């Protein structure tokens, strides 16, 4: 079985939009109250009941809370139970060491509520439109941009700066095929988004993204001139958020398309193990030890983040797994300074951002393509071993 999500744009009426906001607010309140109870009251709860706080115990208290407050009872109990289930799962991940300690949900950040799939039947209106029936809300139209299974597990309504969306979570039968496709190394960069070891490149639509960036900067300057608390400031803030969300959606769509193309064409994809968080850390420093080249580092950080390296890695990873392929990650050290022909490491061979010319053997190539070939070799060559089976650490040949 394979889990898949289908996301569509919702076109709610004004009344339904108000109800969506109420659902988000109540589910956020229930989540935060349950988090506070687990954080501050669990000792008292255990002393009074003799048992620890759990999803089941908090569901029982939710029933009492709904009986006391009509405005909480006006929201479907299914969504509130799903919020409690989310919290319980988050604590499970925390205790297993997979996540940090849970934090309260904030207004405007990851606004969402979820139903069980059996509670939300959907139907196809025509080739371009569908409608889903949500408990206590009614039927809401959505733009049907691709085919989807009739049976769904969960239905999630989300809000971002571009509006409301619905996500249908499904399970589909999927037999993982044997994948005998070729291997490819990929170098992720700032100037060339993806450089493949076969000599080809995949680049983001810089022209459109730069246009959106200039628009967002202009809107941000207009926002700074608006009076705090005014309606015009709120509208200006909404415009900035909308423009940035549009750019993020374009990058995400591009990563989906390129990762699908590469996962279908290759059986093994080799990437550098990049610590994007560490690479984009601020260079400001402290008052005692101020940083150097802060503006240049900030510009590089923006360029790295705008290329969404980690997002591409995530997308190509799960698509390869579904195709029976494999994602391999190798250390990033010296891949841009090593000659892919003779293996000599010499930083002087990287003549410019785009040019690599080995000072030892004379091999010349695009610098990013050369790095991608080094990445491919590092990920596909078996490590040499001693007679007893122990691996031998490779030593790079460096120019003195």
UniProtKB/TrEMBL annotation:
One of its GO terms (biological process) is DNA recombination. GO terms for molecular function: DNA binding; metal ion binding. Residues 309-375 form the Cas12f1-like TNB domain. This is Transposase. NCBIfam families: guided_TnpB. The keyword DNA-binding applies. The keyword Zinc applies. Pfam families: Cas12f1-like_TNB, HTH_OrfB_IS605, OrfB_IS605. It comes from Roseomonas genomospecies 6. In the C-terminal section; belongs to the transposase 35 family. Residues 1-45 form the Transposase putative helix-turn-helix domain. InterPro entries: Cas12f1-like_TNB, Transposase, Transposase_put_HTH. It comes from the Bacteria. Residues 169-281 form the Probable transposase IS891/IS1136/IS1341 domain. Keywords: DNA recombination, DNA-binding, Metal-binding, Transposition, Zinc.
């Amino acid at each position: 079985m394979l889990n898949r999500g289908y996301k569509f744009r919702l076109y709610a009426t004004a009344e339904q939009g108000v109800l969506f906001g109420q659902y988000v607010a109540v589910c956020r309140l229930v989540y935060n109250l349950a988090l506070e109870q687990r954080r501050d009251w669990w000792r008292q709860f255990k002393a009074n009941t003799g048992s620890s706080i759990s999803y089941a115990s908090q569901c029982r208290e939710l029933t009492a809370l709904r009986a006391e407050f009509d405005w909480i009872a006006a929201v479907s109990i299914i969504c509130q139970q799903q919020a409690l289930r989310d919290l319980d799962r988050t604590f499970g991940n925390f205790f297993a060491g997979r996540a940090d300690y849970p934090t309260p949900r904030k207004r405007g950040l990851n606004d969402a509520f979820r139903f069980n799939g059996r509670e939300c039947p959907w139907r196809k209106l025509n080739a371009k439109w569908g409608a889903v029936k949500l408990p206590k809300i009614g039927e809401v139209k959505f733009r049907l941009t691709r085919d989807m299974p009739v049976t769904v597990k969960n239905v999630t309504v989300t809000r971002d700066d571009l509006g409301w969306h619905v996500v249908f979570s499904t399970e589909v039968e999927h037999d993982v095929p044997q994948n005998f496709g070729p291997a490819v190394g990929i170098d992720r960069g700032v100037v060339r988004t993806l450089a493949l070891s076969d000599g080809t490149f995949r680049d983001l639509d810089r022209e459109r993204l730069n246009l959106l960036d200039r628009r967002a900067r202009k809107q941000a300057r207009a926002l700074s001139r608006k009076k705090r608390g005014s309606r015009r400031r709120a509208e200006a803030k909404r415009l900035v958020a909308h423009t940035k969300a549009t750019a993020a959606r374009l990058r995400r769509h591009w990563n989906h398309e390129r990762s699908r193309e590469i996962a279908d064409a290759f059986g093994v994809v080799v990437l550098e193990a990049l610590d994007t968080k560490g690479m984009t850390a601020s260079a400001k420093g402290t008052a005692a030890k101020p940083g150097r080249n802060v503006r240049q580092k900030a510009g590089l950080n923006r360029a790295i983040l705008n290329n969404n390296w980690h997002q591409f890695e995530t997308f190509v990873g799960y698509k390869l797994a579904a195709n029976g392929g494999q994602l391999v990650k190798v250390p990033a050290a010296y891949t841009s300074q090593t000659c892919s022909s003779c293996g000599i490491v010499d930083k002087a061979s990287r003549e410019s951002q785009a040019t690599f010319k080995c000072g030892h053997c004379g091999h010349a190539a695009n610098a990013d393509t050369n790095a991608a070939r080094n990445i491919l070799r590092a990920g596909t060559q078996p490590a040499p071993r001693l007679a007893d089976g122990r691996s031998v650490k490779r030593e790079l040949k460096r120019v003195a």
